[in-house]
Amino acid sequence: MSRSSRRNPGTALVVGATGDIGRAIARRLGRDGWELQLAARDPSQLKAEAQDLHLRGISVSAHECDVLKEDGGVSLIDALPATPDVAVCTVGVLGDQSDAETDWRAAERVMRTNYLGPALLMGALANRFEQRGHGTLVGISSIAGERGRRSNYAYGSAKSGFTSFLSGLRSRLWRSGVHVVTVKPGYVRTRMTDHLELPALLTAEPEDVAEAIARAIRKRRDVVFVGRLWRPVAFVVRAMPESIFKRISL
Amino acid sequence: MRATHLSGWGRYPIRECRVATLRREEQLADWSQTKTLIARGNGRSYGDAALNPELTLSMLARDRLLAFDSSRGVLSCEAGVLLADLLRVYAPQGWFPPVVPGTADVTVGGMIAADVHGKNHHRDGSFGAHVESFRLAGGNGDVLTCSREENLDLFRATLGGMGLTGVVLSACFRMCRIESEHVRTETLGTPDLDATMETLAASNDWRYSVAWLDGSAEGGNLGRGLVSRGDFATRDDLSGQSSAYRSRAPVSRQLPTPALLSGALNPASVRLFDALYNRVGRFRKGPRLVHHTSFFFPLDRLQRWNRLYGRRGFVQYQCVLPVSQSSRGLRAILERVATSDHIAYLAVLKLLGPQGEGMLSFPLSGYTLALDFPMRPGTLELLDSLDEITTAHGGRVYLAKDARCRPDHVQESYADLPSFVDVRQGATSGTREFSSVMSRRLGL
Ligand SMILES: Cc1cc2nc3c(=O)[nH]c(=O)nc-3n(C[C@H](O)[C@H](O)[C@H](O)COP(=O)(O)OP(=O)(O)OC[C@H]3O[C@@H](n4cnc5c(N)ncnc54)[C@H](O)[C@@H]3O)c2cc1C
Ligand SMILES: NC(=O)c1ccc[n+]([C@@H]2O[C@H](COP(=O)([O-])OP(=O)(O)OC[C@H]3O[C@@H](n4cnc5c(N)ncnc54)[C@H](OP(=O)(O)O)[C@@H]3O)[C@@H](O)[C@H]2O)c1
Hints:
- The complex is a heterodimer of chains A (250) and B (444).
- By secondary structure, chain A is of the alpha/beta class.
- Chain A has one domain: NAD(P)-binding Rossmann-like Domain (Rossmann fold).
- Helix content of chain A is 47%, strand content 16%.
- In chain A, the strands form 2 sheets. A 7-stranded parallel beta sheet of chain A has the order 3-2-1-4-5-6-9, sandwiched between helices. A two-stranded parallel ribbon of chain A has the order 7-8.
- In chain A, helix 1 links the parallel strand 1 (11-15) and strand 2.
- The radius of gyration of chain B is 21 Å and the shape is globular.
- In chain B, helix 4 packs across helix 14 (417-428).
- Helices cover 27% and strands 25% of the residues of chain B.
- At the A-B interface, helix 2 of A face strand 5 of B.
- Bound molecules: flavin-adenine dinucleotide and NADP nicotinamide-adenine-dinucleotide phosphate.
- Flavin-adenine dinucleotide is lined by residues 8-9, 38-45, 49-50, 59, 79, 101-103, 106-107, 109-110, 113-114, 116-118, 162-163, 167-168, 299, 400, 436 of chain B.
């Protein structure tokens, strides 16, 4: 009996491959036939993830990467066996807003993890992709980046920065054949949100995010939301006058 | 951690539970202050086995394959791996799980904790018989490896132990070789209970067998049914058939609008069985080749079909009676149902082989009957009366399906219960306890 004959669409790098959304993306792309490069900061978790994918018949290599390290992104790119066709960055941390208000180190960690680290990594990959003349970069930002809210503006502002960075990158690269996807999930049931009560109707599973990303790569979408309701929600959040917005406890 | 309304597959009972997801083993220490908790797989047990208001620990994120020894067919994986996932990966490679229940949406942990049986129990025993070892996190946070060589008592108490001995973290079990992904199957119509039982008994040389009973039959037709039996097709079977003759893996469907359809099962739709029965009766042909998913998991095609029973949910009554008592006992049960104003929507009969190693495992040599009833006034009283018949005939009910049985019935009918209680106490003494709404209901 033969393995189901998969087409081979190319190689995909998943950064943050030990996170819940990252794992779902790796499995999904692997099942679609992509060869995988996994990157994550915790070597033992990374190894277990790679082993799981290997047993699922997916060809995979594993690479350590901590975006908080000064050369986190660059050293990762140098370590890859080949420049990937697709790179997905899922790195992020929610942090605690009140900690971020009282402890600058906590704020800095949230900002660096959600903005500086991912943006510098995507920027460095973009240059490789541009030289080569093709590739797709997928950055996971967040609906939280649409507008700073009192409950999580440290996180939200960093995601805003990442969203802006990706949109600039997309505009710079679109003639070169390199495509950039910005993913703006709303609520997703993951380790990041385990402690929160999330409204069932608005909450997606990591597999839904993976599905949305697989489709966005295929169809070369620019900005994708996960779940039908979020695009209108984002619209309303952006459209509200500041004089009203500032009064709303969100 | 969050609070949410949880139930089993039958959607009865529903309890508000604090739910946490185990993502890393180290997290177990986070709940060291919690006095009581229960592991939960994919919630396919019917009743209250995987509910604990204080802490219900979802294992679904522990879903990694760990190792596969292809010379012996031994797979090692985390407890939250779904059976459907295993089938997707391994069936195309010619490996099949040794035992599968009637749905693929269960976890490996759930298959161990209920020591599930399949259509091949008469040949291969329950899932536990094929488990080589597992890692179990006990009450004080220690992780023990349990096998037939190490911690045997705990091994036996955990097979079928409904999560009450600890959290199964990962397991090692043997898979079987298959030559194709298709099953050669035939279906025989049987006119009454004796014929159905005899046909099942005469199907011993088939690896898989099961009967669907007509829940609405009465009088002389009582227990009439369709016996379905099968074996994995060999390469020769396949080469003899044109590919058009084989069925493909079916596509599963979502219920379009659960709210609209919910409650759509009514006595009239049960009459569908008659149509089917007559069709098979008339076109009794030789064996057909069907894809393994249609053969083993016909109900999985309609996702969330449990909602068809409406808001009040449903209960399944599954009992097993020793062979010598089966004919009389089953007849009494079916008659009791027929004379009540309740209808069993689904009735499945199967001949089980000898009891396995699990102290609380359900199977024993005899016929097992499973009946689905919508919850409505009088349902619980009816089931209590069925318990009396079951007990009187030396049988017992299956905990994985149960939502309502009384403690004395379970205590009487599970002979190894005292050993189970000893082992469980020894393993969890003085620390946090593994308990569920079910275990409290049953006084375990
Ligand atoms: C349509 C249908 C058909 C079925 N057919 C059959 C059949 O043919 N034969 C059969 O035997 N059963 C059958 N079942 C029952 C089902 O196989 C069992 O209830 C199984 O235990 C469900 O697995 P789960 O992962 O959903 O576990 P859950 O329902 O979530 O939990 C069941 C029990 O397992 C325990 N548990 C789960 N994971 C762990 C873990 N990691 N560590 C410790 N304890 C754990 C829970 O505490 C609970 O007591 C059927 C169920 C359905 C819905
Ligand atoms: N969950 C939601 O509701 C939601 C909503 C919108 C957007 N998002 C975004 O989705 C992405 C994935 O999040 P998730 O929900 O899957 O949560 P998650 O499981 O916590 O994933 C976060 C990932 O980021 C990695 N990471 C954190 N700091 C890192 C660092 N310094 N270097 C390298 N990797 C680092 C984590 O690695 P470790 O595995 O080692 O911890 C993990 O893989 C994040 O960008 C998040 O902001 C999530």
